[in-house]
């Protein structure tokens, strides 16, 4: 029988970190690292966490310090702080190794953590994860120039964004706002299964706790020096050390160019890569059956 438990874990300073576990603690540990800054794990928990546990994983979902349900007015939102959160989880659950399943910005957190603490990671999974930030921003703006040729309002906004400091929170926000406004994060032709997953999430308890800290990106850019990075050298180093890297992306995820997808496929390796059709950024909900199938095949 699968174990299910809810845990709030405390930092040394008394700050509480939201953590929820799914499955049997004797099984292979898998930690989900959400996007952001300002994200949370609610959609993953509502749609996918228990299903991964049913496949034989001990799934740990959490919200980083100061994000989502881990409220902390003193959070700095740096990578080092995120590493402390992960080390707290390892210590709390007596984990020697774990799979890091990372989504979006969480891919940067997971990659840098794995590079620093390779002994703690049994495998790194990049699921719609960022790895070359400037290429993503450039792709969003350049692709919109093409698709909105003749649309002076959109083109003027793009021209404004291109003049901003590329290492600023404002530049990042405007790029992703433009992407969101143009449905770059949405599945183009929702399936019956994906419609139900998203509808159940919207109506369920997890969506009621879908907390977004709007100050998180501003504080990240204020406190973190590694603001606009390319982690492919780190990924190559991780792979060279023998840690398996798996990459799974949505074919219709609008924030990645075809050259980026080819790059991450070559880095992970053909047998460690999957590109899902009719799938965008939230691939664990867009094409859940395929997503779960690849995770099971790769990790078991």
Automatic annotation (TrEMBL):
The keyword Hydrolase applies. Keywords: Hydrolase. The keyword Hydrolase applies. Residues 29-285 form the AB hydrolase-1 domain. It holds the Pfam family Abhydrolase_1. Belongs to the peptidase S33 family. This is Proline iminopeptidase.
């Amino acid at each position: 029988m699968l174990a299910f438990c809810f845990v709030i874990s405390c930092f040394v300073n008394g700050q509480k970190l939201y953590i929820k576990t799914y499955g049997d603690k004797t099984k292979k540990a898998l930690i989900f690292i959400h996007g952001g800054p300002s994200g949370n794990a609610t959609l993953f928990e509502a749609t996918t966490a228990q299903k991964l546990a049913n496949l034989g994983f001990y799934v740990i979902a959490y919200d980083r310090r100061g994000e989502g349900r881990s409220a902390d007015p003193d959070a700095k939102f740096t990578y080092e702080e995120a590493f402390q959160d992960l080390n707290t989880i390892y210590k709390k659950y007596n984990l020697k190794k774990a799979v890091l399943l990372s989504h979006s910005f969480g891919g940067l957190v997971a990659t840098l953590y794995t590079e620093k603490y390779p002994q703690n990671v049994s495998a790194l999974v990049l699921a719609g994860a960022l790895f070359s930030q400037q290429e993503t921003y450039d792709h969003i703006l350049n692709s919109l120039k093409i698709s909105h040729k003749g649309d002076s309002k959109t083109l003027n906004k793009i021209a404004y964004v291109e003049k901003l400091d590329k290492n600023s929170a404002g530049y990042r926000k405007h790029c992703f706002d433009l992407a969101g406004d143009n449905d770059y994060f949405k599945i183009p032709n929702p399936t019956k299964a994906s419609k139900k997953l998203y509808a159940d999430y919207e109506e369920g308890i997890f969506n009621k706790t879908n907390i977004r800290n709007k100050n998180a990106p501003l504080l990240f850019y204020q406190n973190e020096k590694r603001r606009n990075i390319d982690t492919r050298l780190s990924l190559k180093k991780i792979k060279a050390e023998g840690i398996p890297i798996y990459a799974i992306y949505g074919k219709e995820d609008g924030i990645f160019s075809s050259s980026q997808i080819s790059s991450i496929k070559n880095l992970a390796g053909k047998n460690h890569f999957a590109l899902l059709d009719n799938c965008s950024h939230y691939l664990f909900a867009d094409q859940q059956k395929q997503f779960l199938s690849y995770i099971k095949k790769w990790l078991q």
